Amino acid sequence: MLRATKHIAHRDTTKRVNYLCHKIVVSTNSQYSTLNYRYGGASSNQQQQGHGNGGKHHYYRHDFLAPHGPKAWTIPPNRGYGMVVVRILRGALKLRYLLLGGAIGGGMTLNKKYEDWKDGLPDLKWLEEALPQGEKWSQFSKTLIEIGGAVKDVIEIAKDDLKAKTTVAALSLSQDDSRRKYETLQSQVETLQTEIMNVQIKYQKELEKMEKENRELRQQFLILKQQKKTGTKKIKKSLIDMYSEVLDELSGYDTSYSMADHLPRVVVVGDQSSGKTSVLESIAKARIFPRGSGEMMTRAPVKVTLAEGPYHVAQFRDSEREYDLTKESDLAELRREVEFRMRASVRGGKTVSNEVISMTVKGPGLQRMVLVDLPGIISTMTVDMASDTKDSIHQMTKHYMSNPNAIILCIQDGSVDAERSNVTDLVMQCDPLGRRTIFVLTKVDLAEELADPDRIRKILSGKLFPMKALGYYAVVTGRGRKDDSIEAIRQYEEDFFKNSKLFQRRGVIMPHQVTSRNLSLAVSDRFWKMVRETIEQQADAFKATRFNLETEWKNNFPRLRESGRDELFDKAKGEILDEVVTLSQISAKKWEEALNDKLWDKLSNYVFENIYLPAAQSDSFNTMVDIKLRQWAEQALPAKSVEAGWETLQKEFITLMEKAKKSPDHDDIFDNLKAAVVDESIRRHSWEDKAIDMLRVIQLNTLEDRFVHDKSEWDQAVKFLETSVKAKLAQTEETLSEMFGPGQFTRITHWKSLTEDQNKRRYVKNELDKILKNDDKHMPTLSYDELTTVRKNLQRENIEVDTDYIRQTWFPVYRRHFLKQALQRANDCRKAYYLYSQQGTDCDINCNDVVLFWRIQQVIRVTANALRQQVINREARRLDKEIKEVLDEFSEDEEKKAHLLTGKRVTLAEELIKVRQIQEKLEEFINSLNQEK
């Protein structure tokens, strides 16, 4: 109609253009102004003049505009300009009207298509009516089920009627022509079987399409209903997700299936490269596993939870990321992550691992079940495999199949000889009656070309292998192309089974025994049947276990609440951090006292051995002291000071921890954990580097002051000198006591005697005492003559010693002599501050020892003050940070927590909490399962 309308519009437009052109020509040509043209006809004057056939010639518009031939009009040359104008106007007007006509026609066409598209849109007003009530959806699903049942009944009736007619016809035939007619009927039967298979495939496709539409509509309805109610309400978990969580809880509780974990799961077993991973991918409708050319790729068990969902996604149990399985980029990343996790789980030179990789796959039309993909069984090991790989795979496979309720999905490669299979014998050992085994023959497209068809039929009828099974299925999992999508593989599989002569000939193979879809339906149906049969029994077993554990807890720990390792760790973490906080509550005075004591303890030996004693041997004591002190402050003193500060911080923190143990609320179960955290934190912690440079400047400036300012500082310096010398003298006396043995009184009262070496040293000591008695201000070292004299004197007593033996004895003897003189000088200088303040270093009494120790005391005081500020302002917080980091690391290390938090109380509480969680999840799952029924 639109095309006719456009044609009429174009014709009318052409007429108008011609008419206008004629009018323009007549008006511009005065010679022919009297002519009166009609469209398509000749003028009256021409008829009168007799041009043409008796004045009846007709001159059309194209002849007028482009004259040619013997009958063409001759236009005068002086009229050419008018003709050009006519041509231009005609073309412009023609183009204008053509565009106008096209626009009108195109608009009408677009309007018509819009109306058709609008009429084809679904009416969405039903959603507003359906939101408050769900009966329509239930009725729609019920109608679908009834349609499916009706179609199946029609097919079955047709089959029965066909068999009955065939039987009656065969019996009524005569003996002579029965064979011919039987063959005819047999061909008809085969034709009908093919038609039935085609009808069933067509029915399945239509049913899938209707189910998909139903799911999409229902999903939209649920989303809209959810948005209408509240946007914050949590969506209830699906049954399969709840069941998968129960299995995850059980994976760490009963790994041997010897106690209570007899819950069903589908265990996929088969020889290496038999196609078991491809079967699992066909069921999951996504290529989620890595592939290799002949290389073992499945190195660890992979638990795959299949669930129905609006989007086709995958997610690992310990990760929040979702992989979109409709995108090839996400699929590639998922396969890389699976391969990475498999290789990471293999440790210690092993080829396979028992560590389970858990993932969930959701998508439209997926059958709900839990499958475990295991490494393929091998018959020969390669050089790059561990020596125990073959046995490890066998043990792992038997371990999973030993679960009495595990459904064994036995995968057999149809393209190889059945006798080469290793998996069938292993399956027969675990399930000899075949009550939980489903046999799957893969690669039947290759088997059709290579294998004997009769053997294939025997395998699928259960007559070739002695292994028994619940069902026998044949599938095609691809054409050997890595890049083929699941949809392409499914189409190839359906085309193969539709056209394969192997599955269209007579035999026991039925249409429901082929395709991955029928396999997944059968496995899912068997899985949920076993779940319903066994779940109550498993829940009762855990309920009894929980009661026994709770009774044991009440008898052993009646006043304590059961707390697992995680809870105990959190409690210990809080106590440790509280102790770190108490560091800031230590007073400044206490910090400085502790730092003073630690500094002198770290520095005293250096002061005596490297500064005081060498300077005392020199003739210029003060000059030597200045040199030694400056070298000390520029090199070793700052680092030693930082070391003393860190040890003081550590000591105070440990003291607080020990004090907390004496609290009435102390729980000794945390002691090992706290000690490990403190040790690790202290090992990691280090003082700020810039503290050393800052201390060096402070200490150098302090040591530049050589004059004691007031009497109180003088008295403190004298006291410090006496205390230090006495402590050193006490150490020297202990050394002498060990060298010379106990005195006579001690030997008598404690029944002790001197050793031979002690007797010999006593003789040496007597000779050395004579030297010191004769020279009260003897130098710290013995001269050669003195050594010779002592050795000769001892020879008169029949005692043979060498010079080194004499020097070893001399050192502590002289040390005691020197320290006693230092105490005497300190006592003499106690009241000499007035003389010192008046005369300085020229004082009659030698008090250089007091000034030295005053300078050391001052540098220790300013260093302690600087370290105290660093501890309070910086280091305590840095230690707190280190402790928190260590606690965070320990909290993620289950092995570390299990090692540090031990004992019956912990293990019993852990088991009780685990059993309680599993039993509660089982009850929740059972309630949801009963509601679904």
TrEMBL record:
GO terms for cellular component: microtubule; mitochondrial inner membrane; mitochondrial intermembrane space. InterPro entries: Dynamin (IPR022812), Dynamin_GTPase (IPR001401), Dynamin_N (IPR045063), G_DYNAMIN_dom (IPR030381), OPA1_C (IPR045817), P-loop_NTPase (IPR027417). It catalyses: GTP + H2O = GDP + phosphate + H(+). Residues 260-536 form the Dynamin-type G domain. It is found in: Mitochondrion inner membrane; Mitochondrion intermembrane space. PROSITE patterns: G_DYNAMIN_2. Its EC number is 3.6.5.5. GO terms for molecular function: GTP binding; GTPase activity; lipid binding; microtubule binding. It is a single-pass membrane protein. Its main location: mitochondrion. SMART domains: DYNc (SM00053). This is Dynamin-like GTPase OPA1, mitochondrial. It comes from Musca domestica. The gene is 101893625.
